[in-house]
Write a structure and sequence with these properties.
The structure is a single chain. The chain is an alpha+beta fold. It has six helices and nine strands; from the N terminus they run ααββββαβααββββα. It has two domains: about 90 residues, no CATH class; about 110 residues, TATA-Binding Protein. The strands form two sheets. A five-stranded antiparallel β-sheet has the order 5-9-8-7-6. β2 and β3 form a beta hairpin.
Length: about 210
Amino acid sequence: MPAKDERSSYNLEVAYALACERLASIDIEQQCRHSGSEYQRRGSQQVITVRYLNQPYLITLPEVEISLGGSAEPVPMRDKILILHYLTQAKGTPVTGRLITFRDLPGGNIYYPTFAKRTIRPLTDHFGQEPALLLANGEKLGGHRADYGDTAITINAFSRVPITLVLWHGDDELPPQLNLLLDSSIPDYLETEDVTVLCETLTWRLIRSSRAG
């Protein structure tokens, strides 16, 4: 039986291959409009620029190559899959401004324990006592302050996928509490499982940013 890491790697490869197949079957220019991405033709190639966590990622066709703009740094497979899922699934629905919790997503109650373990708990542990650090690190990812809770910041994980982190500072009787709020349009861009992966990626980008100083 394959080791767990081998099975995980295989599953990612399969998911990536399926996402590439879907990309080949869609109207690329339309999906760029729907996702707020940039489309260019460069000779025989098509180049799509997707903004992801405040950085430009380039998808080059006809061979599907995904790279970080201006960098030779390899793109992790999970990020490649998220980028392709966002691009291919985007419906172009305007951001509503109506915030929902993860539990409000299709199947959100089922995924919630995993979601909380991977996102809310580490964020609360790391930033619960340091709201200024949450804001500073969120701004590095292109975030802007929001008027919720005691401290809040909204980060556009993708052009049309804002995520708002809301922190209540707590007091002598209550510990700090943090939650991630999503625009109600998010199911028109990502499936619930992808939202879990996206929020986990955002969580660790924020935490590593603070550790890096």
